[in-house]
Amino acid sequence: MDFSALNDALASKSYDQIADICDTLMLQVSSQGVVFQDEWPYAIHLLGHIYISDINSARFLWKRIPLAVKERQPEVVAAWNIGQKLWTRDYAGVHEAIREFNWSPEVQGIVASFSELYTKKMFELLVSAYSTISTQDTALFLGLNADDAANYTLQRGWTLDPSSQMLTVKKQAVATEQKLDSSKLQRLTEYVFNLEH
Amino acid sequence: MNLNMNSVETLVAQIHGLSGSISDINQLHSLLKQSEDLFQSESTRLAPLLTELDPFMHSLGYLYILDACTSAPISKEQASELVLSIARFINLCAAEQIRLAPDKFTSVCKRFKDQVMLLEDPMQGVAPMLTAIRKLQLSSEHLTTLHPDFLLFCLLAKCYKPGLSILEDDIFDVDQPRDFFLYCYYGGMICIGQKKFSKALELLHNVVTAPMSILNAIVVEAYKKYILVSLIHVGQFSISFPKYTSSVAQRNLKNFSQPYLELANSYGAGKISELELCVQAHNEKFEFDKNLGLVKQVVSCMYKRNIQRLTQTYLTLSLQDIANTVQLNSAKEAEMHVLQMIQDGEIYATINQKDGMVRFLEDPEQYKTCEMIERIDSSIQRIMMLSRKLTDMDEQLSCDPLYLAKVSL
Fold first, then answer.
1. What are the DSSP calls for A136-167, one per residue?
2. For a Cys staple, B122 with which of A105, B157, B252, B337, CB 3.0–4.6 Å?
3. Residue range B248-266: average pLDDT?
């Protein structure tokens, strides 16, 4: 099995391509009748899907993994654990699942990168969904302890009320592009022409 | 018999000789068609000849011989070899050549499908079948007999993403009605699996409203899923059929899906406890139809619908009130539900933990951005293309002799 494309992607940290590369390779190898299940990098494959937030595909991949592999490779189970927490929207559980396993060197890069990405996404979710939120809950969402969580948010413009331990969210102004250009005029002409005929 | 094998050898030589230009290939094609019986009679001895041919340069000849070889019954031991050799042929063959004999190519692929199913390794068939479709198709708008087989492989192998890529093509040409029914039904299931409910609804709708003179099992099952997906995606289900639905479907479908219609009724009433009672009552039927997963999704959607309905009446509401109205267990649960809906873009709201309140907001979309203009643009382009296609079809139909005969009477 030729894993060069996968190795290149891992080396260049192009983690968003891992899922596609693994999917294509798996179908190719399977169509050649090769029995690949024992050597397949299932943990990386699962994490590839998780990295691009395709939990549906991660779920179906998990269902395809043979029981023997699940029993022999705890890292595969740990990778799925992250996916499961994402699936059930156990926001704090995702951080725990990342932290509680001792990841192998091949996988550490993508796990660390995902952890950063996830924390950022959680922060953006909090900004869009909350006007005030307790430091405790913020800590759970961001996977940090209460003080670090408070600092993280304060650095980004939030304010803290120490007596109630409530953080006030700073909303970000949404910049939208509204410039039109001349090609739109061309298109409008086409539409009018089409409607007239 | 030797005489026959000599003739076959001669044919092989001709395949070598006549696989150059298009006129040669056409000549070869007639020769091969005339030699069908010869191939059939020697089917058991043809396999070694394949090694003398190149699957790309001599695709047509290779196809005829492969078709004859595989028409004989295959033993289990031979099955895996056969599957590999057909897969190899599919990957290497020249599309222009095999399109001259589409029926032969289809029957070879069908046998491939049967053998793969016997080997119980559907994933093995996914990649080759996709290649086969792309080579057989005259355009991406053409639905072949292989489409549903491919989607079936995707479903059985739990490889849904390749299936989605095929489903993105718009279909305008259909070979066989049965293919269309199966394609839309399997396609609907794949979309459901990937949570693309809008596309799933469209496909299932096509099955239910397709022209038919008698009911078939595919339509019955599709209708059940159609009801469930409609509840999940649209939040309601209307039992009246569109005008273009066949009368046989309109009269009979409801008889086969009573539990589902009751579920839809219960959903419409809006009370979670009643809905769950309904699910319990028909649990066995849903499980037998393998629709229990979808039914559970319908139930969890009910919470969402009820919360969404609140936004029409209230500007702000406490989390506890939301929990009470929607029949959730606690304010914290209500908070999590609202948060998930905000994350999925199903509601515009801000949660205020300090006061335990939720403020409902207006949709911030102003429809003025460049992105929105692009979307509207591409929709208009698509409709213009469809409108042109419709005009073309109308013109073609008005020249059709059958139509003219009916109209002139």
1. HHHHHHHTS-HHHHHHHHHHTT-EEETTTTEE
2. B157
3. 92
